[in-house]
Amino acid sequence: MSQSQKDLLKRASKVLARIDNSYAYFPEDETPVFNRGEGIYLYDPDGNQYLDMVAGYGTVNQGHTHPHIVQALLKQANLLAHTSATLSNVKVELAEKLAELSPIPDTLVHFDLGGARATEGAKVLVRAYTGKPKVISFSNSFHGRSSGSLSMYNADQFQFLYNVQKDYYTAPYPYCRRCPFGKKSCDTCNWECLGKVQEILREHKDVGGIIVEPALGARGYIFPPMDFFKRLRRICDEHSVLLISDEIQMGMGRLGAMFASEMYGVVPDLILLAKSLAGSMWPLSAILGRRAIMNSVRPGTLGSTFAGAPLACGVALASIEVFEMENLCERSRTLGKYFLERLEERCKGYPLIVHIEGRGLAIGIEFELPNGDPATAEVERLHHMALRKRLLLQRGGPAKNMINMIPALNITAEEIDDVVDRFVELLNDLLLEPQVVENMAASAASAAAAAHDARQA
Ligand SMILES: Cc1ncc(COP(=O)(O)O)c(C=O)c1O
Questions:
Q1: Calpha distance 360→252 (Å, rounded)
Q2: Cα 118 to averaged position of ligand 1 atoms, centre (Å)
Q3: Average pLDDT, stretch 101-129?
Q4: Is the peptide bond before 221 cis (omega within 30 degrees of 0)?
Q5: What does DSSP say about strands 270-273 and 242-246: parallel, antiparallel, or unpaired?
């Protein structure tokens, strides 16, 4: 850690509450502090370069400080930054652009401030349109931190503090590697997870919608079987409930298409976008939905002072232009495939890695100990070691035993090679850590004892 970073951390400890992820994600004295970003790189105040494989949890899909988006921000700031009680030209243009791209026929758009407010808005629309108060959501999902969004999914750690009303039923997400129904293979399963959705719908007549992430983000990265979304759509149609695709993290090209649901060939009733929508430069979210659903609430029901401000909309228009100028969805698909292949090739046979999976430029690497327990402590160690080597990674998975790679979508093949080289070096270093050696030996011994007991039985 550079001297300037240490000095800034000292000052932070005096004035900043350690509450949000920017300050509470790493140990207090190891939290990185940056003052500049460009493309897939972040820089500390002493000019040291870090490779950013987190991209603001999918907020910087166009890369840090993209010049086209910076120009648009400056231009819009000079023209018109805010109106509350009127429309702006850029708001209309952005809505037109999103409606044109949207897979939902006759899309209407509503803008808000961030992801949690978009999920809350979706809940309001479901209630208004269907007259039903509840939704089905999935285990290990994340839909935001606000009382409204938390009332839609199971996030026990927040329930008391946010005084959450439980307006949801939980179905298991298809986390096939650790199938909640104990199935060994997707080929032999009977879609028990969707069976649970149907059971809830049969038993409870107060469900108006199903909210789902196209791949688990904050608690992933975990990818459902390709057919999952289509089957879910069919169930929604059979029971006349709305399908809400929360694409706040997995949309905007992350899975290889502008809208993640497109990758699965499915048209949802509502699509939620945020994060990279305004190219990381201004908070903006959007609900895209069928006209009848969007018209089911009275004017004024949703909104916020800054929601859909001209500055945000001008920036978002430029951020979508970058997708078109740089072919980012196509890049996400081809470079994602390349990244995945390189990782698979180079990590093959590594003792702790049990699974590497990706769609587009969302890649999850799962770590387990020899006895099958999640290698949570090892992944935490790797995550911190990576930071010391100036590689910023995301730790994830329901058991926090995954390393996720979510770079900006304009990463190059050479940069991917560099990340993979550094990652493999780190993996080798990890196996030399005495605590890791000890844990692995203890776990291997317990696996051998269990195998012996099984043979005796
Ligand atoms: C899938 C998903 N939904 C909702 C949210 C909440 O978004 P925000 O943090 O902008 O409120 C997030 C944030 O990580 C997310 O990943």
A1: 11
A2: 9
A3: 97
A4: yes
A5: parallel
Among 364, 203, 332, 175, which residue's Cα sits nearest to residue 256? 332
Tokens at 290, concatenated:
């069928």
pLDDT score at 25: 84
Domains of the chain (ranges; CATH) run 34-64+328-440 (3.90.1150.10), 67-326 (3.40.640.10)
Query: So what's the pLDDT on residue 24?
Result: 84
Model confidence pLDDT, tens digit, residues 144-170: 999 999 999 998 888 889 989 999 999
What are φ and ψ of residue 18, in 5° steps? -90, 75
One-letter amino acid at 314 equals: G
Q: Which residues line ligand 1 (CB under 6 A)?
A: 57, 114-116, 119, 142-144, 213, 217-218, 246, 248-249, 274
User: Tokens representing 17?
Assistant: 């509450």
* Strand-pair partners of 270: 244, 289
Nearest by Cα to 323 from 113, 101, 156, 19? 101
pTM for this prediction: 0.95
Question: CA torsion angle for 289, 290, 293, 298 (degrees, to 10)?
Answer: 70
